[in-house]
Amino acid sequence: xxxxxxxxxxxxxxAADLASYACGGLxxxxxxxxxxxxxxxxxxxxxxxxxxxxxxxxxxxxxxGPPLPNGQGFTTNAVVWFDRHRRFVRTSGALYQxxxxxxxxxxx
Amino acid sequence: xxxxxxxxxxxxxALTMMIFTRWDKGLAHLIAATKHDFPDxxxxxxxxxxxxxxxxxRVDWAVEQLFERKDRRxxxxxxxxxxxxxxxxxxxxxxxxxxxxxWLVAQVDDEMCKHFDLEDRLSIxxxxxxxxxxxxxxxxxxxxEAQFVVxxxxxxxxxxxxxxxxxxxxxxxxxxxxxxxxxKEMFDAKLPLVVAKDVAVIRRTLLAEYPHAATAxxxxxxxxxxGAPIRMKPFILCGPPGNGKTRLIRRLGDLxxxxxxxxxxxxxxxxxxxxxxxRGWGDSTPCVPARAIQQYQQxxxxxxxxxLEKACASPRNGSLFTVLLxxxxxxxxxxxxxxxxxxxxxxxxxxxxxTANSTEGLPAPLKDRYRLINVPAPRxxxxxxxxxxxxxxxxxxxxxxxxxxxLASDELDVIAAAWKRAGFxxxxxxxxxxxxxxxxxxxxxxx
Lengths: 108, 447
Fold this sequence. Notes:
The complex is a heterodimer. Chain A is an alpha+beta fold. Helix content of chain A is 28%, strand content 34%. Chain A has helices at residues 3-22, 29-34, 104-107; strands at 37-47, 53-62, 72-75, 79-82, 88-91, 95-98. In chain A, strands 3-2-1-6-5-4 form a six-stranded mixed β-sheet. By secondary structure, chain B is an alpha/beta fold. In chain B, the strands form three sheets. In chain B, strands 4-5-8-3-9 form a five-stranded parallel β-sheet. Chain B has a two-stranded antiparallel sheet with strand order 1-2. Chain B is globular. Chain B starts with a helix and ends with a helix. Mean pLDDT of chain B is 84; it is low at 1-8 and 153-157. Classes of the chains: A alpha+beta, B alpha/beta.
């Protein structure tokens, strides 16, 4: 499979997921269970030039698989959907389950 | 220019929320929209609590209820409600909103973004998400709007606003027929500038009468500041024939108290009609904006060009499009030399409005100077409100105001079927309602 095909597939999957979330849909339990889990996470807002900002999640990754061992520090790509109940986030390429939020009270 | 920009409609309810200038205005809009599409949810939202925290809880409840519906329209409305849940004092409330708003704004083309200042507004939302406004009492809507507000020199309250449109020092000698026609009295006369009053009431009235044009109405009124002289950017209402564009502008003029001077774009074969005729002509006429000001005796009057796109674009004798350019820029309009009056006029307070079925054939420089606002065709759901308006107008015309029974549900059903066949034109709706009344009267006579 060429890279272009893979990108195309990612874009199609993203559009389908966003359309579903926008209608109140959620990822399937099996999807979430298979998705990488981020524990002790917190939100990072970073400027991305031209007045554009992005929201990323930083924390300890689990279930990512090689080469990242469980508990490794990790930052996602720009989040395109942040679940209002903080159960998951979706970036353009992947779905992540959110676990415990670090210093929840401080973050709030 | 893309269709999306020409339409003037933002493609998502959450984006529409971004252009509201206050939280409570956004709330009022969403309650009305929810009442329309999801009356059962709207019914449970009211009465709204006065307590701010309780009000926010109600907003959260609406978000959940709408997302529970699991359909596209409900989800869109839920996202719109979610914008109201964002509180600058609690930056984390922005996390679920800002990512989706950023994604939605990224889907909008550049021209529409610029038209609605979406990126500038979004940057304020990002700042709020970062926690820059945790000590602010204003909502993110008010802060996003504040960046566009320019402080003006304080106005002396006892001095009613006005402007000299026709200074004698910048005029030549008037032709006798113009002098006799009331133009002589215009020299150095300070003409009043009508100020905006009860904008919220005007908005509610227009929304009730033109429910299909809600976005257009909000865009039209956003330039107005309570108590300040009425000044609006030039705008074109675009949309299919017979959807009430002209009537909406007239009604706006009536409600604002500025009046509306109509010029038929379709009958304009050159720029002479609008731009006036030169002094050398036997029967010379000043330009349309000057005539409008003289007729209404105020400096800010609406000059409406109906069916602008039907004007002839031929440059012979100067096309309407070319003539208009000088009037649409405040700078040139404030020093416009009228060829007939031979005087430098200040026409900068005139409100330039136009209607068009399409803006495709209009030259780009002209489109750049207008705000293009779409008025969509009415929907079947708008029929009760629109039919009631038509009924009221017909009863006033016939001198029977207050004596005409409201339309019964079976009559509305018949009207709805006929109106659907007629393509949801308000012009056609007038005929259908008139025919229904006639049928009602005939029926009454037989029995």
